[in-house]
């Protein structure tokens, strides 16, 4: 998935998030935490510095946690954060590009992506969704939290524009705009069970499950959710 990494922003990212968004992103991440902690094998993709991992780890008796992240510094921050948690031996921290990761023969019953898919253009979103589907058990639940284009006011549009310019410069993310991942999710057989909105619908937390048989028609086109950034 390219050379994207959050190493350069890892030390100040929590402060940056708090300054710009307050507690909104944290609230969105925690929306379905009760459903996540009920899993046995939990996969967190692009977890970042481990704030959510630490929180859910204290609340569950899940057999295992697997965290996949492309940033060594973010993984190191996660390791430090969970070091005092008694159950941390159940956690495996993996430095890898998700699409290149040779995963073990395990099907996860919970998958979590928090503000992850918005980093990628459509073709990579499709590949990521397909990889997640391969890693997931038949009864898996997937929690995806991300920005949307819904009801964006002028301030939010400007903030999105600024975010993409900032993270393309300092984290080398591959997308320059926001794309809607839902068509790819539907095509892979995922359906939304429940959805919660934050900040007038600009941020969405979705709980999804797998359909018994995915839709058969692959024909769709995905339009960008925001204005391209040059």
Descriptive notes:
This protein has about 230 residues and is an alpha/beta fold. It has a single domain (about 5-210), classed as Rossmann fold (3-Layer(aba) Sandwich). It is about 30% helix and about 25% strand. The chain contains 8 helices and 7 strands, in the order αααβαβαββαβααββ. The chain has a 7-stranded mixed sheet. A hairpin with a 4-residue loop joins β6 (about 190-200) and β7 (about 205-210). The two termini are about 20 Å apart.
At a glance:
This protein has 230 residues and is α/β, with parallel strands linked by helices. The chain has helices spanning 13-21, 24-29, 33-36, 51-57, 72-82, 122-135, 154-170, 182-187, and strands spanning 41-45, 64-69, 91-95, 108-114, 136-147, 190-198, 203-210.
Give the key terms.
alpha/beta; 7-stranded mixed beta sheet; Rossmann fold; disordered C terminus; 230 residues
